[in-house]
C-alpha cells in the first residue's frame, strides 16, 4: 500500500476514535443509508461497474472512488470542527435525484438511471449531515459526477474533428489525400478514423483530471478555467496529430508497419504522454499554497446565509422516515410504469406504395438494422420504374425500457461488428436522423431514421425518450415504431435522391407509419 494511502487510512482510524458523539451517530446513519441505497439499486451499480471495467472509454473511473476518499481525507481535519445536523431541504435534493432515476427507469435511459443513483448518494450528505458540512464537501460531492459513464455520445463528433485535423496535417505534409466523412484516401491506402480512434476516452479522462487539478492545484479561477480549456483542447489536437502520424508513417513504411506501431502507442501510453505534457505546461502556474487547509472552516461556520439555511434543520429520525417514503414511492412508481404495454396487432405488412414495386431484398453487402425487444420487424426493398431502389425497415414495440429501446446503444441503422462503418451525417430529411454508412470501404449507403410515438415523429432519440417518459408518468400505454428508409448509391442516382422520391410517394410519413403498423 502506498505511504500516502497508509497515512490516510491511519488518519481516518485515529479521527474516528476522536469523533464527538454527534459525528459518530451521523456517520453511522449516513453509512447505513448508503448501504441501503447500494443494495436497492445494486443492478444499476453493477451495470456501471461493468462499464468501468469492460469499456476502455471508462477504465479511468475505477480510480474515482479512491480520489473521492482522498478528497474527503484532505478536508477531514477541518470538517470535524463543524456540527452535523439533519437538514430537511436536503430531502428535496434527494427526491430530485430519485426522480431522475425514475425518469431513466421508465424510459430505458441508462444515463439517467445511473446519474440518479450517484446523485442519491451525494444528496444523502446534506440531508443527514447538514448544510454546513455539505458546504465543506461541495467539491467531492460535485466530483461524484465522474462516476457516471458518459461521453460515448461524443464519438461521432470527435471522429469528424479528428478527421478534419488529420486531413489538414496530411495536406500540410505534402501527401495527396481525399477526405470523405471519416475516411481518408491516400496513395498508401484508405484510412478510417474509427470510433476507437475518436479520442473520446482520453478526452473524458483528461476532463476528469483537469477538474481535479483545477481544484487541488489552483486558487485563481482564471487559471482553473485555463487548465480545463487545456484539458479539452490538448487531447483533441494530440489525437489528430497521432492519426496524421500513422498516415504519414504508412506512406514511408507501409500500412501494416504503421498500423502496428499505432496499436502499440495508442492506448494509455498515449494518454500518459498527453497528461505529462499538460502537467509540465501547467506546473509553473500552480498557485495553491502548500500546508493550507482545503476549506475555510471558519468562513463556513460564521457564514450568515449558511446560518439561515441551517435553521431549517430537522431531527435525524424524521429525515430517515422521509427518505424511506421517497424510496418506496419511487420504486413503486417505476414498477407500475414498467408493467405498461400497448396492445399489438397480430402481424404487420409492408404496404403498397404508388409508383414503387416490391422486389427481392438482395443488397451488395448485407444490411439489417437492429431492433432488439421489438414485437414486429419487417425489412423489404422497393423499386421504381427508373430502377431506383429503397430499403424499408420497420420495427414496432409494445413498450420502451430495458432491452426494448428503439434508440438504445447498438440499435438502429448501424449494425455493430459488421462490414458497415459510420461515415458522416447524411443529407437532411426534415426531422429524420440521416447517416451515411460505408460497407467494406466500397459501398455507400444512406439511412434515415424516424421514431413514432403518439403524435411524435422525429429522428431524435432524446425527443423519443421525453415522449416515453411522459407516457409512463401518466401511465399511458402507447406503442413505439422505428422506421428506417435506406438506399445505396447507384448509377440511376444517389441514395439521397432515391429516398427523397420514395418519401414523396408515401404521403405524410406519420399517418403512413400508423397505417403500416396498424396502431391507429
From TrEMBL:
UniProt keyword terms in alphabetical order: Cell membrane, Hydrolase, Membrane, Protease, Transmembrane, Transmembrane helix
Keyword check for Transcription: no
Primary residence: membrane
Compartments, record wording: Cell membrane
GO molecular function: hydrolase activity
Enzyme superclass (EC): hydrolase
Transmembrane segments: 28-46, 58-74, 86-106, 118-146, 200-218, 225-245, 265-286
Pfam family, one: DUF3485
Protein name: Exosortase A
The species this protein was found in: Novosphingobium mangrovi (ex Huang et al. 2023)
Underlying gene: xrtA
